[in-house]
Amino acid sequence: MHTYNVTKKALAIPALALLSSPLFSPPLQAAEAVNPPRPTVADIVKASKPAEWRALDPEHTLYMDLPAGRVVIELAPAFAPAHDANIRTLVREHYFDGLAMLRSHDNYVAQWGDPDEKNPRPFKSAKAKLTGEFTVPMSNDKHFTQLPDRDGYAAQVGHSNGFPSARDPKTGRAWLAHCYGMVGVGRDVDADSGNGSSLYAVTGHAPRHLDRNITVVGRVVSGMPLLSSLPRGTGALGFYEQAEQRMPIKSVRLAADVPEAERVKLEVMRTDSASFKAVAEAQRNRGGPWTKVPAGHVELCNVTIPVR
User: What is d(CA 119, CA 196) in angstroms, rounded to the nearest whole number?
Assistant: First the structure.
């Protein structure tokens, strides 16, 4: 048994003096020494160069106007060329105008299209059925920038011209990943049963198990709060059971068909730029006093793709 001989003089040492001793350094000071300040995503965006940004292509940008505001969707023709073309045809036929949000599945997706299955709106020149474009040849993916972090769903993951993507060198195939904000084509059991007339956006935790099982056509670059805040559907899979539950779609337009003065001026950071590499690093190893232990790893869907 150990005994300690503490004198009255020792007991009289002020508590402040003990706290100032190296033996009593507050844990926060030690943590700050281990995790020094690092640039944040906001810092990197502020310091980025104009050449590290690109404007949206008006021919492949959709404006979906809802009563509460506008959702801007950038299409990805390199990954789903047939669906991209069909969706643009549907938009120019005004197919989506007056349709509705069909479904809001908690922590999953928000889906829109024609709510009337018995008397669906006819297609004019758009195709009623397309072959699923779940993957494309890696040669289509000309702007791939690989992340060094391991992924459980693909041999390689990274970004391609502003979209989270994945690839398998053994099969020579590439595809877009189901990250938050990505837009996919609704389908039935048949792999070739979708044509882009029913679309959804991921509003919850990335459902990567859907990768290579659904055609992914783009991502929402502005207006996600309008979709993620929709009331949850009361039916199976979050479908709305009553017509009054569905938010109507005022119109869907291609940016190219909207007067210049009415377009949303947006730029996406080039995902093959030095600044975007720094953005990924900032997410992988967050600095500053709040983060005590940097992760040293970042998941594909947790890498911010800056839009301004």
Answer: 18
